[in-house]
């Protein structure tokens, strides 16, 4: 008997055995009854998966199509729909990716065990097993891809909502120290305490702004900028003062040369420079240098610090979001923040510029190159 026919004729037995295993997975760590999959839901899911696999196995497939399927291409839309529905159902009930994979592993084992007991013989049986494994592997890949895609979207949406909702209460915290510092009756200890609150709240504000930018770009939206006439020298000097106020122990030297006037988003460039300086102060050691030079219709900005070099293996992903080159603190490797360097790359890119890094035993240097007059980008200018 053909394996596809075997699956359909023994569907009830196959579903029963698989549901018994899947029910155990759905019970683990799910104390709330609403979070558990009912037997009917499990049964319907198994029927949809097995029916889709059997239908796919009956589809004519030449050598070229078989090669394409082995590389994850060529599945019909109905086949993928079953995999996507399975992923959505499992995500809604709190299944993680490992549990989704375990379900498919059990489904494969259940079918092949019963198929073997029917004593299939000949080359057609071997070919049928190949087709079955191809189909279930592709359905597994589609289900996992959909699960990860949806999980990531939900996580990014949560981060966006959280960052947005935190802005209002944090705004009150940021503004309050400004009022308190004008109170002449405040004691010396009170002034120091208020200054600490002010520095801490400003750092929190920067982190929330970075989180909002991260969430925005993850949803495929361009980083908003509004370019006006700016003096990059003033922007860099202000950024250095701000970082020095937060980290009084930091030794930051600013060098300015050439024509540093241009058309940029001043707030965004200030954020870029601040992120690079904070990164150098937190993860490097010794003095921090900020050198800015204007020449031939462009500017070059270099932030350097001493310290252990960034491992070469970390450089390719250093500007990726939520990554670090090292878990060591300031005395260790000069590493990137989870979002800071990612934001820097986005700001440089939206100004038609570039950012790169070189790290050796002599120091770590981040280099930003920007045109003084970036080409107009209506999408980026939109707010």
Automatic annotation (TrEMBL):
PROSITE patterns: HIS_KIN (PS50109). Keywords: ATP-binding, Kinase, Nucleotide-binding, Phosphoprotein, Transferase, Two-component regulatory system. CDD domains: HisKA. Its EC number is 2.7.13.3. It catalyses: ATP + protein L-histidine = ADP + protein N-phospho-L-histidine. Residues 161-374 form the Histidine kinase domain. Pfam families: HATPase_c, HisKA, RsbRD_N. The keyword Cytoplasm does not apply. The keyword Transferase applies. GO terms for biological process: osmosensory signaling via phosphorelay pathway. One of its GO terms (molecular function) is phosphorelay response regulator activity. This is histidine kinase. It comes from Paraburkholderia caledonica.
């Amino acid at each position: 008997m053909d394996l596809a026919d075997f699956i359909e004729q023994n569907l009830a037995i196959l579903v029963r055995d698989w549901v018994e295993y899947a029910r155990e997975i759905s019970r683990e760590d799910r104390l709330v009854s609403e979070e558990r999959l009912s037997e009917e839901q499990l049964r319907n899911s198994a029927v949809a998966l097995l029916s889709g696999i059997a239908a796919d196995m009956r589809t004519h497939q030449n050598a070229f199509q078989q090669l394409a399927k082995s590389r994850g291409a060529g599945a019909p839309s109905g086949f993928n729909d079953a995999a996507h529905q399975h992923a959505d159902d499992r995500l809604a009930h709190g299944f993680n990716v490992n549990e989704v994979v375990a379900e498919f592993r059990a489904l494969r084992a259940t079918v092949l065990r019963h198929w073997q007991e029917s004593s299939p013989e000949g080359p057609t049986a071997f070919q049928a097993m190949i087709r079955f494994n191809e189909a279930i592997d592709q359905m597994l890949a589609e289900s996992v891809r959909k699960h990860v895609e949806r999980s990531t979207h939900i996580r990014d949406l949560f981060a966006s909502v959280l960052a947005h909702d935190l802005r209002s209460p944090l705004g009150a915290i940021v503004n309050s120290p400004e009022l308190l510092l004008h109170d002449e009756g405040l004691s010396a200890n009170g002034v120091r305490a208020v200054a600490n609150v002010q520095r801490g709240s400003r750092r929190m504000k920067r982190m929330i702004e970075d989180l909002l930018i991260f969430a925005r770009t993850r949803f495929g939206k361009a980083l908003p900028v509004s370019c006006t006439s700016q003096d990059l020298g003033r922007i860099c000097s202000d950024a250095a003062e701000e970082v020095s106020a937060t980290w009084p122990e930091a030794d930051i030297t600013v060098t300015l040369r050439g024509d540093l006037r241009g058309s940029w988003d001043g707030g965004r460039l200030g954020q870029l420079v601040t992120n690079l300086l904070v990164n150098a102060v937190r993860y490097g050691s010794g003095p921090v240098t900020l050198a800015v030079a204007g020449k031939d219709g462009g500017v070059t900005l270099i932030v350097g610090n001493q310290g252990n070099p960034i491992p070469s293996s970390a450089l390719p992903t250093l500007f990726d979001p939520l990554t670090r080159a090292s878990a060591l603190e300031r005395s260790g490797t000069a590493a990137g923040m989870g979002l800071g360097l990612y934001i820097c790359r986005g700001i440089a890119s939206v100004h038609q510029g570039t950012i790169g890094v070189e790290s050796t035993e002599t120091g770590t240097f981040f280099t930003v190159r920007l045109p003084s007059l970036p080409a107009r980008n209506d999408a980026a200018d939109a707010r």
